[in-house]
């Protein structure tokens, strides 16, 4: 990402509008990481999730579509995918719960890459998806720090995932720190170009 241009958007919104942007967390955003990092390092260091939250709330974790029990597994592959959820209900939820009673029964499908000796020199991108309680509880902080998205993903969300009624709660839009002249939703969508964008969504009460 060092040599890649990133267009930065900032939306100042009415505080009650923040949940309208949570679908972006389920859709997925990207986090730059050091390849070879453990999941524990990524969750705490890169995503800035408190350790007590990781231990008590992130009960279902999938890395590259495989359930994870050990947070010391390492991520070596660029564009890997990470899904985070609270405990899911029912038997399926019990089966995939991290270090739960049934975890020993799914050894053959669980992610098993153990930690290696230190990080690699290369940087990479990890696609992160948040579901249910983590999306609602971690969403405000992640949105205010900024989500790395493709331009197409942002344009698609604005066009299809955000209603005109909700858009009325957006009172200021900045592109690379300059206020956008027209703040009509259709105009904003038309200005989003392909490539990488960073989206910050900030309550208007914040300085």
Explain what the structure shows.
The protein is of the alpha+beta class. It has one domain. Helices cover 29% and strands 28% of the residues. It has eight helices and twelve strands. A five-stranded mixed beta sheet has the order 9-12-1-10-11. A five-stranded mixed beta sheet has the order 2-8-7-4-5. The chain is globular and about 50 Å long. It starts with 5 loop residues before the first strand and ends with a strand.
Count of DSSP H/I helices: 8
Strand portion: 25-35%
Instruction: Report the helical percentage.
Output: 25-40%
Cα shape: globular
SSE arrangement, N to C:
EHEEHHEEEEHEHEHHEEHE
Instruction: Give the CA-CA distance, first to last residue.
Output: 29 Å
Query: Average pLDDT, to the nearest integer?
Result: 85
Compute the CA-based radius of gyration: 18 Å
Per DSSP E runs of 2 or more residues, the count of β-strands stands at 12
Structural class: alpha+beta
Q: Residue ranges: pLDDT <50 for 5 or more in a row?
A: 89-94, 113-117
Most strands sheet:
5 strands, mixed
Our count of domains comes out at 1
Main features:
five-stranded mixed beta sheet, 8 helices, 12 strands
Provide a short characterization of the protein structure.
This protein has eight helices and twelve strands. It is of the alpha+beta class and 207 residues long. It has one domain.
Question: What is the topological layout?
Answer:
Blueprint: E1 6-13, H1 23-27, E2 29-34, E3 37-38, H2 39-46, H3 51-56, E4 60-63, E5 66-67, E6 74-75, E7 80-85, H4 90-96, E8 123-130, H5 132-145, E9 147-150, H6 151-160, H7 164-167, E10 170-175, E11 178-179, H8 185-191, E12 196-203
